[in-house]
Design goal:
The protein is mainly α and 357 residues long. Helices cover 72% and strands 2% of the residues. It has helices at 3-14, 19-35, 57-64, 66-82, 89-104, 111-137, 143-161, 172-178, 188-206, 209-218, 220-225, 230-256, 268-278, 290-309, 314-331, 334-356; strands at residues 43-46, 52-55. The chain has a two-stranded antiparallel ribbon with strand order 1-2. A hairpin with a 5-residue loop joins strand 1 (43-46) and strand 2. Helix 3 crosses helix 14 and helix 13 (268-278) packs across helix 14. It is globular. The two termini are 16 Å apart.
């Protein structure tokens, strides 16, 4: 086998985790283009204020999946390190959104007050993330059970923060966070997703966090014996997920310019876990690719937009989504991957024998 062929083989083996999500995304794109050639068309229009903005199904998908994509990034870290999932991310985002609004209601809304609100909600969410992480890493509580505590009481905490009210804010700055920055046609949530992606890319590039997360997730005891602080790595994963929850909560609050503790990002926990699974990551921990989880988030949103475009009723959308997601998860399961791997090896052996003959 030549160097070029070896390089191609190595590349595909290295990125095999992304095969299923990329194929699923490609099939969704092809299906929509066949059904409606203009489905992904984008047009530049002026909003009510006269600012140019981009509109279209593609923008709706990228914009609508912003909170889910950010939560999927954090969920990937927790899954990789702990071999479990955090089911409290929606509730924690509601708490962060409540803190954000609480700070904004403390005085005239200025850019500095907004920054202070973002910093405050990030700090609070990261503290709650540290609480979840302590239960998992120090007391060795199973992640889903540990985060069930905040899942149960989190929205009540969000309710108490603002005295049981559903406060609203009228601010162009807050509106821009969940919508469009005046004069810039791309929705701000899409830009925030890109910034979060750059943050994690730099974090993995200039630290050994990615390697430590995978080492702890694959074998906690072996990682500890090799000098890795397994407790600290798991704790940091939950803290970073708390940061992702805060950012998602700010975006969701900015979209509505209010915080409703009962409905803010309701049930997004399950979609975040599904995004990680669809992205080809093992829910048992270990090796991960964050980009796969982000693709998984966009697949879920693209599927939702596609179903609505096909006039599927809102009551039936979840059922159709469930069928497609089951297929994707099964195709990405270790059993199916091993089967495809064995078939590929058999074909490779047969091909080499044919060449030798």
């Amino acid at each position: 086998m030549g160097k070029t062929e070896k390089g191609k083989s190595s590349f595909f083996q290295k990125n095999s985790q992304l095969l299923v999500p990329l194929i699923a995304l490609m099939l969704l794109v092809i299906f929509n283009l066949i059904r409606d050639p203009g489905f992904f068309s984008i047009e530049l229009v002026n909003d009510n204020a006269g600012n140019p903005v981009l509109q279209g199904n593609l923008i709706s998908i990228l914009n609508g999946a912003s909170e889910l994509a950010i939560l999927a990034m954090g969920m990937t870290l927790v899954t990789a390190a702990s071999g479990g999932q955090d089911i409290s991310v929606g509730c924690l985002a509601a708490i962060a959104g409540s803190v954000f609004i609480k700070v904004l209601k403390s005085g005239p809304i200025t850019p500095w007050l907004v920054l202070g609100g973002v910093a405050a909600c990030c700090l609070v969410a990261m503290c709650f993330g540290a609480f979840n992480g302590t239960l998992v890493s120090v007391f060795r509580v199973q992640p889903m059970i540990a985060t069930l505590i905040l899942f149960t009481c989190g929205r009540s905490i969000a309710y108490w923060i603002n005295g049981g009210a559903t406060p609203t804010v009228e601010s162009d700055i807050v509106k821009a966070i969940g919508g469009f920055i005046p004069g810039f046609p791309i929705p701000a949530p899409i830009l925030i997703v890109v910034l979060m992606g750059i943050f994690f890319a730099l974090l993995f590039r200039f630290t050994t966090l990615s390697m430590y997360l995978q080492a702890v997730g694959i074998n906690n005891n072996a990682a500890r014996l090799n000098g890795i602080n397994a407790v600290g790595v798991k704790l940091l994963a939950f803290v970073l997920l708390g940061l992702c929850c805060a950012v998602s909560g700010v975006i969701a609050t900015g979209r509505l310019q209010l915080v409703n503790h009962e409905t803010l990002l309701i049930n997004i926990e399950m979609d975040a876990i599904l995004a990680v699974a669809i992205g080809g990551n093992s829910l048992g921990g270990g090796k991960f690719k964050m980009i796969g989880s982000v693709i998984g988030a966009y697949i879920i949103q693209a599927l939702t937009v596609t179903l609505y475009a096909m006039k599927v009723s809102s009551t039936d959308v979840k059922a159709y989504k469930a069928v497609v997601i089951i297929l994707l998860v099964v195709l990405g399961s270790p059993v199916v991957k091993r089967w495809f791997g064995s078939m590929r090896n058999k074909l490779a052996v047969a091909g080499s024998r044919k060449e030798a003959a």
